[in-house]
Amino acid sequence: MPAANDIRKGQVIKYNGEPHLVMETQHRTPGNLRAFVQIKMRNLRYGKALDQRFASTETIEVFQTDRRTLEFSYADRGTYAFMDPETFDQIELSAQQLGDAVNYLASGGKVDVLFVDDKPLNVEIPSSVALKIIESAEGIKGDTASNVQKPAKLETGLTIQVPLFVREGEVVRVNTADGTYLGRA
């Protein structure tokens, strides 16, 4: 097992029996005290972030990780199926594991999945996705003087605010961080 000095950003470590993704590390040597490593990490099961201090010589267990790009296939009763385009293996994840990512999953969309000991633990979606508008009210003619927006329902069920000129059936780009309209695709 490596010492705390050897832990780097992006590794998955075992802390309190749970896998934690290392987001930031800092090695500190304050005055006449012993050196320590300050690690900012996020619990991969629950999403909670925390800071923890380790002695620089303390050993920490590091999990073997694998990051794969998978393609979204379909959703069925709260279960979402993904396919590995290289091996054609299929993996199913629950809505709870995906979290807010379910609002941005369109058929054929790609996601990065972090596997720890061959178990999918974390799903990362692209920063923006292209989704089709399935329901939207018509814009009122002459109401173009200001930045007026209207609600539009997307193919995933998410409702966002779009400009009046965007029509039903069009494909738009959506920011996955906050669910805002970025433009037409």
Query: Might you state the CATH topology name of the largest domain?
Result: OB fold (Dihydrolipoamide Acetyltransferase, E2P)
Alpha-carbon Rg, integer: 22 Å
CATH architecture tag of the largest domain: Beta Barrel
In CATH, what is the class of the largest domain? Mainly Beta
Helix content: under 10%
Q: How many distinct helices?
A: 1
Instruction: Tell me the structural class.
Output: mainly beta
- What count of structural domains? 3
Order of helices and strands: EEEEEEEHEEEEEEE
What's the mean pLDDT score?
Answer: 87
State the major sheet: 5 strands, antiparallel
Uncertain parts: none
As a percent range, the share of strand residues is over 45%
Main sheet: strand order: 7-6-5-8-9
Distance between the termini: 48 Å
**Topology, number of strands:** 14
